[in-house]
Amino acid sequence: MIRKPKKRSDRFRKHNYMNDTMSVSRAQSSGSQVVFISLFSVVVVALGLAWILFGFSHTQIIYAVVGIIVFAISFFSMRAGLILMALAMLFSPEFSVGSIGIRDVTIRLEDVLIPVLGLAWLLQVTLRRQFAFFASTPINGLIGALLILSVFSTAYGFLTGWVQLINGFFYVFKTFEYFVIFFLVINCTNDEKQVEIFLWIILLTACFVGFYTLSQVPTVEIFTTHRISAPFETTPEPATIGGYMAFLLLIILNLWLYEQKMWLKWIHGGLFGILFVPLLYTLNRTSYMAFLAGIIFTAVISRKRIFIYIVIGLTLTAPFWAPASVKERIAFTWEDSKNPGRTMGVDYSSQERFYAYRRMWSTGKRSPIIGLGVTSWQTPDSQWARTIHEIGIVGLWLWFWIFFRLFRTSFWLFRHLATGRLKGMTLGYMAALLGIIIHGNGAITLYVVRIMEPFWFMTGIVVSLYMIKVREAKRLA
Where are the strands (E) in 315-473, listed by range? Predict the structure, then answer.
């Protein structure tokens, strides 16, 4: 059968259609650039006027300039902006912008970067007319419900005199920022290659932190202010840096367990050692417990006999290889129980973790369902006792349901992935998730920026991989 040649008019129509499509694309791109340049110019001029009229400090101007630069980078490459933010999570300085009562209000660099990234992302999707702002994930509804409850409870607490509005707003906004990190990572991760890139950025940041804290080990003294601390901290916060290290160590350990390439195994093993030594010298028992819980979980789920034997051997021989200061800190748990006022057979600090629930209930029982508002009770001893007081039993249930959904998602991914680095990352994330829950019994973990920001970044990576694998399974079905 002889095919008839296409009519000249058909060829012209197709050619004109292609030209029109390319013209529209170029017009949209040109329009986006014009809008961006216009907004950029307005911000720069406004910044200059603010400097002149309101006398902003040099530090504040530097932060603003950094924010503008990151906004420009993120507008054209959101992934590059996320990489910059990941590197800044543990290495961001802070400055005071005022005070609320007797508390100073401080802002870190990432407090500028996260809103900037969010605005750049919104501008991108608006100009490109891609109005699906939030990718569908297993925890979207729970996140929305948690934020609504937090706002409602805080408003109720303000009206009943339990919450200072600005104080509560800052904490709610901080939680909102964590979820922004999660959704930004989700929306910028479309394949396994990007998952690998973000994972290596997290590990690179951990390596820098490891070397920074390793240099502090020789100066550590028990029961003094000479403790391991994160960069730019004015006073040491062992629970902060310890929680971060426990979280990352559990992921790195599982990467080492499942890595197939020997040279990468050596890299993961070396990175584990760089972080493990400073973790010991944080002398923070809450972080020890979080790490130990994750180790036990890994041993049970992985079923790798050699690893189980290593864990048992190291545990039994710990009195011989553990540093003297570590053994002294752990032994203090029972030695201090001999002093007056210790009624539970443990030291005062450990005892307070249990009594926090009793102290919380004395006022929290006035509104046990939805709580008395964020910042209505500011204890540093227990995240979960504080959560019940602030957003009630419903809020605690929402948090644990989020964690359950994340665990179930990760477990599905672990079962369906072939043996390799990503399978190890998934199991490590589950172990680290358990560690986060345990850590919340001895610290206000959900409000610790340097733990929660890496946690939600890592959560975005794992959930992105889950969504990629689900799409692949649907295509093959």
Answer: none
Cβ-Cβ contacts under 8 Å for 452 (sequence gap 6 or more): 178, 445, 446
Q: For 333-387, how does the pLDDT look when each residue is reduced to its tens digit (9 = 90+)?
A: 888 888 887 878 888 888 888 888 888 988 889 999 999 999 998 777 789 999 9
pLDDT digits (tens, 9 = 90+) for 132-183: 567 889 999 999 999 999 999 999 999 999 998 888 988 999 899 999 999 9
Task: Find the helix or strand (DSSP H, E) in which 107 lies.
Answer: strand 103-108
Element of type H or E holding 163? none
β partners of residue 98: 105
Element (H, E) at 412: helix 383-416
**Calpha distance 78→82 (Å, rounded):** 6
Q: What is the pTM of this model?
A: 0.85
* Strand duo 103-108 + 94-100: pairing: antiparallel
Q: Indicate the SS3 state at residue 444.
A: coil
Residue 104 pairs in a beta bridge with 99
**Angstrom distances, CA of residue 38 to CA of 35, 42, 45, 113, 209:** 5, 6, 11, 21, 39
* 8 Å CB contact between 121 and 180: no
Q: What is the 8-class DSSP label of residue 3?
A: P
Nearest to 166 by CA among 243, 249, 76, 101: 101
Tokens encoding 232: 């730019």
The total number of residues written for the chain in this structure: 477
Residues 251, 458 contacting (CB under 8 angstroms):
yes
**Which of 201, 235, 230 is CA-nearest to residue 215?**
230
Letter string b/e over residues 291-321, b meaning 16 or more CB atoms within 10 A of that residue's CB: bebbbebbbeebeeeebeeebeeeeeeeeee
Encoded tokens for 425: 């990352």
* Token pair for 401: 């349901």
Residue type, 124: Q
5 Cβ contact partners less than 8 Å away, ≥ 6 residues apart: none
Residue 135 has a CB neighbour count (10 Å cut-off) of 15
| Burial (Cβ within 10 Å: 0-12, 13-18, ≥19) of residue 224 | exposed
**Closest CA relative to residue 209, chosen from 228, 225, 181, 193:** 228
The residue among 375, 450, 462 whose CA lies nearest residue 110 is 450
